């Protein structure tokens, strides 16, 4: 709105200017100004020889006009001043303030009364006009569009907000019909809206209007009916808030969210669906159509779902879907068989929609897990192959160690066999006596049986070590495993004059492991120790085997020797496959020990401090295993 529209002119301009002065200045200016006007009018009337009534009427007009400028006191001042002028110049005797005629006294009083009555009336009207102007200014302050219209739709009031929003100036809009001017698009039928408006006195909703420039704006609109004193509707006050930007942002957000969701579904191969169990209605996302291999336009139904389920899974899927009627949801994995023979693995998860509707409604997601499944299967197969290769190596290594221990094993078995043969000879001789001593013969037979069992046990142990069998995890005491491993080495230890020192801790927690494989680790470490000491011709040959439980969840075994130790540059390579410093060595002993220990969840290390410890420091290997049960407290 242009400034000139609101700038005061004429009397309002004088009022505005007076408002800027102090009370005293204001009164001085006003009384001086009023007195001068009254003086001029009196002088003019006197020269023109106007009669009392005419002059009184003129004075009345002046007093009314002046009363618009200030308080009742000023009006009273001007009224009294006027009476003095009338009395002095127009009432007999002239040029005195005396009044002799009763008629004149009555006329002067009548003038005073009517001037005071008229000025107070004018002032009251002025006050009302100010109040109205103040209210109207309030409506101008709001940024909302405020429109008052008659029941016929003709615009009676159009605020600055309406002018800014719709581009129509007040003078263009007043008198026009709102719906024609703004080309209103209503959210419901006009008669329905009017029904609500007149019935309740209010209506609110969203409208689409067209501005003067032809742009469409969406407004949130609130309407109230204005009624007269008798309650009859007079007009409607409409307030319009522009929500176009918010709406467009919401729409854009919704569109981008939908686009993100569709993209995310595509990326994760996960589609969504809604299933009304009661009516059988199904709703699928794009990705769900893709997973089932149907066109987006295909009408979907449970029959179409079942057409794609792999024949081997139909019974299982059918049973689960039939059971879904109880509303408990489902989580199933099954296969789809698509035209062309492609098989997909899918996982479908659904739960009851939490909207409290009467109908049983499921919301769910279906994921194509084919790739994950295939990768898993490939991993499992690869792992199985790796395990098998490792087992083959471990077996080969065991057989090779057994080969090195052949002499020991033969000696081990030979001992009980020789004892059996000797006892057998003695027994035969005793049987040749005329009266054999049956008690002695019984003892002899018992010794033979004992030795035969000892030989059988040695053979069983060797066979177990030589067998190619899958690892079998049982609860084991590590100290027993150490003792069994040393049985293999007994002869070797004796012939090579090696001292074996054992520090085996009591109350060790047990471990879950494969007996043969753990024996193999200890035999390997001990054989390496013996070979190193023999090769280096160490003056003292000692192997120390220690078991401890460093904490309640771990057991530890160290195999230490008094040999030459490990060269520092070899330390990092010891566990590499095929690393060996021995003539004819295979370099697989330590890597196999490590793979066995790690497969048991433990760790094997070489104590480098010992290795770098100088002359005759020997080597110390240590391995840990997780305890299977916490120790008894
Ligand atoms: P191999 O016994 O066939 O050489 P290993 O993997 O068992 O294969 O051992 C690898 C190398 O580690 C051995 O060649 C040897 O140099 C070194 N080594 C293993 N144990 C000891 C030990 N107790 N003392 C010194 N060197 C050892």
Name the descriptors.
single chain; 633 residues; alpha+beta; 5-stranded antiparallel beta sheet; 22 helices; 17 strands; 53% helix; 19% strand; elongated; binds adenosine-5'-diphosphate
Quick gist of this model?
With 633 residues, this protein is an alpha+beta fold. The chain has 22 helices and 17 strands.
Low-confidence stretches: 1-7, 610-614
Ligand inventory reads: adenosine-5'-diphosphate
Compute the number of helices: 22
Strand content: 15-25%
Using DSSP, what is the number of strands?
17
- How many strands, what sense, and barrel or not for the largest sheet? 5 strands, antiparallel
Give the % helix.
40-55%
Mean pLDDT over the residues = 87
Compile the SSE list and pairings.
Layout: H1 3-6, H2 11-19, H3 23-48, H4 52-67, H5 72-90, H6 102-141, E1 145-150, E2 155-158, H7 160-166, H8 170-173, H9 178-182, H10 190-200, E3 202-210, E4 216-227, E5 233-242, H11 244-268, E6 270-276, E7 282-284, H12 286-292, H13 302-308, H14 314-323, E8 330-337, E9 343-352, E10 361-368, H15 370-404, H16 406-431, H17 438-466, E11 474-476, H18 478-495, E12 499-504, E13 511-513, H19 515-535, E14 542-551, E15 554-561, H20 568-571, H21 589-599, E16 603-606, H22 608-611, E17 620-626
Parallel strand pairs: 12-14
Antiparallel strand pairs: 1-2, 1-5, 3-4, 4-5, 6-7, 6-10, 8-9, 9-10, 11-13, 14-15, 15-17, 16-17
Bound molecules: adenosine-5'-diphosphate.
């Amino acid at each position: 709105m242009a400034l000139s529209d609101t700038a005061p002119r004429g009397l309002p301009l004088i009022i505005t200017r007076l408002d800027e002065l102090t009370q005293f200045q204001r009164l001085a200016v006003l009384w001086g100004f009023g007195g001068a006007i009254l003086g001029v009018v009196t002088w003019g009337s006197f020269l023109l020889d106007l009669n009392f009534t005419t002059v009184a009427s003129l004075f009345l007009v002046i007093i009314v006009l002046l009363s618009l400028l200030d308080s009742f006191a000023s009006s009273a001042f001007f009224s009294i001043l006027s009476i003095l002028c009338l009395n002095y110049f127009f009432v007999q005797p002239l040029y005195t303030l005396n009044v002799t005629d009763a008629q004149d006294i009555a006329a002067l009083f009548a003038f005073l009364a009517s001037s005071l009555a008229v000025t107070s009336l004018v002032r009251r009207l002025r006050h009302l006009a100010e109040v109205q102007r103040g209210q109207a200014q309030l409506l101008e302050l709001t940024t909302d569009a405020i429109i008052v219209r008659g029941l016929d739709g003709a615009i009676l009031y159009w605020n600055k907000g309406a002018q800014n929003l719709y581009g129509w100036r007040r003078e263009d809009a007043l008198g026009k019909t709102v719906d024609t001017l703004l080309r209103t698009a209503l959210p419901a039928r006009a008669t329905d809206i009017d029904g609500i408006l007149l019935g309740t006195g209010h209506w609110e909703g969203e409208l689409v209007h067209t501005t003067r420039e032809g742009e469409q704006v969406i407004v949130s609109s609130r309407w109230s009916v204005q009624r007269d004193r008798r309650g009859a509707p007079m007009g409607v006050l409409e307030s319009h808030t522009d929500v176009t930007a918010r709406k467009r942002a919401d729409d854009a957000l919704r569109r981008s969210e939908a686009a993100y969701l569709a993209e995310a579904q595509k990326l994760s191969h996960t589609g969504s669906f809604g299933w009304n169990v009661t009516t059988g209605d199904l709703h699928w996302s794009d990705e769900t159509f893709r997973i089932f291999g149907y066109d987006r336009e295909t009408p979907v139904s449970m029959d179409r779902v079942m057409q794609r389920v792999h024949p081997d899974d139909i019974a299982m899927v059918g049973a689960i879907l039939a059971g879904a009627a109880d509303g408990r949801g489902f989580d199933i994995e099954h296969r789809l068989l698509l035209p062309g023979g492609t098989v997909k693995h899918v996982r479908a998860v659904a739960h009851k929609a939490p909207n409290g509707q009467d109908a049983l409604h499921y919301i769910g997601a279906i994921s194509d897990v084919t790739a994950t499944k295939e990768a898993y299967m490939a991993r499992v197969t690869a792992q199985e192959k790796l395990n098998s290769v490792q087992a083959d190596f471990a077996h080969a290594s065991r057989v090779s160690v057994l080969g090195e221990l052949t002499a020991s094993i033969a000696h081990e078995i030979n001992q009980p066999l020789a004892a059996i043969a000797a006892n057998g000879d003695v027994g035969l001789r005793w049987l040749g006596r005329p009266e054999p001593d049956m008690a002695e013969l019984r003892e002899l037979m018992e010794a033979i049986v004992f030795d035969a069992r000892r030989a059988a046990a040695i053979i069983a142990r060797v066979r177990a070590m030589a067998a190619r069998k899958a690892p079998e995890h049982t609860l084991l005491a590590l100290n027993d495993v150490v003792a069994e491993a040393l049985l293999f080495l007994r002869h070797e230890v004796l012939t090579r004059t090696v001292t074996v020192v054992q520090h085996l801790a009591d109350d060790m927690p047990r471990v879950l492991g494969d007996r043969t494989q753990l024996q193999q680790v200890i035999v390997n470490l001990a054989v390496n120790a013996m070979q190193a000491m023999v090769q280096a011709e160490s003056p003292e040959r000692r192997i120390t085997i220690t078991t401890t439980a460093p904490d309640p969840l771990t057991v530890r075994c160290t195999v230490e020797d008094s040999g030459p130790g490990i060269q520092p540059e070899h330390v990092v390579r010891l566990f590499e496959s095929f690393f060996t410093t021995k003539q004819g060595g295979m370099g697989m002993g330590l890597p196999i020990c490590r793979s066995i220990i790690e497969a048991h969840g433990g760790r094997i290390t070489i104590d480098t401090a010992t290795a770098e410890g100088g002359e005759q420091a020997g080597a110390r290997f240590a391995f840990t295993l997780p305890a299977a049960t916490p120790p008894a407290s």
